[in-house]
Structures are given as C-alpha cells and as structure tokens.
Write a structure and sequence with these properties.
Mean pLDDT: 94
CATH class of the largest domain: Mainly Beta
Distance between the termini: 96 Å
Strand content: 25-35%
Low-confidence stretches: none
Radius of gyration: 28 Å
Helix content: 10-25%
Number of domains: 3
CATH architecture of the largest domain: 3 Solenoid
Largest sheet: 12 strands, mixed
Shape: flat
Structural class: alpha/beta
Number of strands: 40
Strand order of the largest sheet: 8-11-14-17-20-25-28-31-34-37-39-40
C-alpha cells in the first residue's frame, strides 16, 4: 500500500514541510531510512541522522529547530514518538486484519462463534467453546472444550488453551503459550500421587501475554490475570496465583502457587516469587531478584535474592564488593597484633 506524505499528515493532524506528494510504502528507523520509507525523530541522540537520512518522510516535533538543510520531507506534529506509534498501530491493524475460516480448521458443532472471526489452517475449537466477535485464531492454535474468548482477542499460531479457560476482550496471546495446564502439585504422603487440578484460568480484558508462557490452572477456583496485565516472553504463573491490574512482568518471571500480586506492579527480568505471599500495589522488583516474604507496603522497590529494600541493598553491596580488601586488612591487623604480642613477651 502507498500513501502520499500529505495523506499521512492529514491522518496524524500534522503539518508538511517539503513535497507533500512523495509516496510512502514502508516504515523504517531514521538511520536505516531509504526512498519510500517514513521514519521519526524523538530521541535527540539521533538528530544527526535527520540531515543525512534517505527516508522520504520524517516525523519531527512541532517545536524542533533545524540547524542545517534537509533533503527529506518533514511532518511536524505535537509528539513524533506518539505519532509514529499511531502509525505502527495502524500498520499492525492492516497486516493482522485476517478474516474467514479455513477449510482445514476444525470447529465443534456445539461451539458458538461470533462475527468476522478468523480461524487458520489446523486451528481447533472444542466442544461448547464460545468465541466472540472479531476473534483471530491463527494456524495450529488449540481451543479446548468450554473455553470462552471475548471479542477482538487474538491467539497467534501454536497457542494452546486448555478446557474451561475464560479469556476476556482485546487480549493478545503470542505463539507457544499454554494456558490452563495442570498446576504442579503432588502428594508425598500418598505415594507422590498427582493432586487433581480441577480449577481454571481467568484472563480479564486487555491482557497481553508473550511467547512461550505457561499459566497453570488452579487446583480449585481460578488462576487470575486481572485487566491490563502485560507479560513478556517465558513467564510461568503457577496454580491459584492472582496478578493485579496493569502489572508488568519482563521475561523469565516465575510466580509460585497461591501468591497474590497487587495492581500496577513492575517486575524486571528473571524475578522469582515463592508461593503463598502477598505483594502490595505499585511494587517494583529489579532484575534477578528473589521474593521470599510478603511485601505489605505499597510503592516500595526491592532488589537482591532474597530481596530487600533497594536502597539498603545498594549500600550493602558496596560493602560486599569491598569484602576482599576488608579481609586483607583484618589479616594484616591480626599479623601485627601477633607480632606485637611476641615482641612484648620477648
């Protein structure tokens, strides 16, 4: 698809400087721009590229002042970063706007599907499943019996949704993710027999789950991801965990069973949280931290393993980093004391 610079300006409510008839057919980073591409400048570190880019159109802030001539057409807007994000969203909508049910998809007769759904090759929808409007189920995705999926939700290729799972509206679940697999529970007092997992998983509206995540079903009741939760790739959520609204997890996060996490929390990569804890709202956990006890005060930042207050951790780490020098000083002092003691006795 091609658009003129002026058409894009009208869409973004911006002002053209230069040739408004130039044709745009792709998006690019400013340092990699080429003829026919559109880019943007928001970070001052990339300003030098504006004067040598080959992109046909560059979005800049309305108040940006040029210090040299440019060869590209400029599009001035209130926020270049926001405007380019808007373009990316539109591009994705066009690219991912798939509809229709493949002849090689399987939909059980007892299942109900909404309007304008997409079901790709070898997609499977089980008995009594309820699929909302405009849902997209990519090839080789599996939707088990009695699953409910809300409007405008997307399951990318290879997603597996076990039975009884409930997924809300406007969710995105990326390839390889498994939702509703059994929780990890065995009974060592009964010959290590598996404890049946008969609960489910509930995912509320506007949740995004990255690739290759695993969300376990509850033993009883539900494992719950509240509205607006965002997961990176490779996250594991165990049985009966509850994650509060708008909480973010970076890659490799692990939460053990029955832990309750508050709203608006942010967890960096490789954070581990043991089971049966409470984590207060607005908690921030830095990368590779291990949470071994409940966090009850909202808005705190934790670091380390086991994790504690980040400011205290940084101070403690200074001492740890100097530990070898301290040991050498202590050894030297002990030698001096021994020598002084020998001299005194002699």
């Amino acid at each position: 698809m091609q658009f003129t610079a002026q058409q894009i300006a009208d869409l973004l409510q911006g002002q053209i400087e230069g040739d408004g008839t130039v044709l745009i057919s792709k998006l690019a980073k400013i340092e990699e721009g080429e003829t026919g591409s559109i880019s943007f400048l928001a970070n001052p570190l990339y300003t030098p590229y504006l004067y040598k880019t080959k992109a046909s159109l560059v979005i800049i802030n309305k108040d940006f002042e040029l210090t040299a001539p440019v060869t590209t057409t400029l599009l001035r807007v209130e926020s270049a970063a926001n405007a380019f994000t808007q373009l990316l969203e539109m591009y994705n909508q066009v690219k991912l706007n798939k509809k229709g049910i493949s002849k090689m998809a399987f939909i059980a007769e007892s299942a109900t599907v909404g309007k304008d759904i997409y079901a790709g090759e070898f997609a499977f929808i089980g008995e009594n499943a309820k699929i909302g409007n405009n849902v997209k189920i990519y090839p080789q995705a599996y939707v088990g019996d009695n699953v409910v999926i809300g409007d405008n939700t997307t399951l990318f290729a290879g997603v597996k949704i076990y039975s009884e799972t409930v997924i809300g509206k406007n969710c995105i679940i990326h390839s390889g993710t498994v939702i509703g697999s059994d929780g990890f529970r065995f009974n060592p007092e009964n010959d290590h027999k598996k404890v049946p997992q008969i609960g489910n998983v509930i995912i509320e509206d506007d949740v995004e789950i990255g690739a290759n995540c695993a969300i376990d079903r509850a033993t009883l009741g539900s494992t719950i991801l509240r509205k607006g939760v965002k997961f990176d790739n490779l996250i594991h959520i165990a049985h009966n965990v509850e994650v509060g609204e708008n909480t973010y997890f970076a890659a490799h996060g692990v939460v053990a069973g029955s832990t309750k996490i508050g709203k608006n929390c942010m967890f960096s990569g490789q954070v581990g949280i043991v089971g049966h804890l409470q984590v207060a709202d607005n908690t921030i956990i830095t990368a590779q931290s291990g949470i071994s006890k409940s966090i009850t005060k909202p808005g705190e930042t934790y670091m380390g393993s086991p994790a504690f207050d980040a400011n205290k951790y940084r101070k403690a780490f200074i001492h740890f980093r100097n530990l070898d020098a301290l040991v050498q000083r202590v050894n030297a002092l002990e030698r001096q004391l021994k020598e002084a003691d020998v001299n005194r006795k002699s």
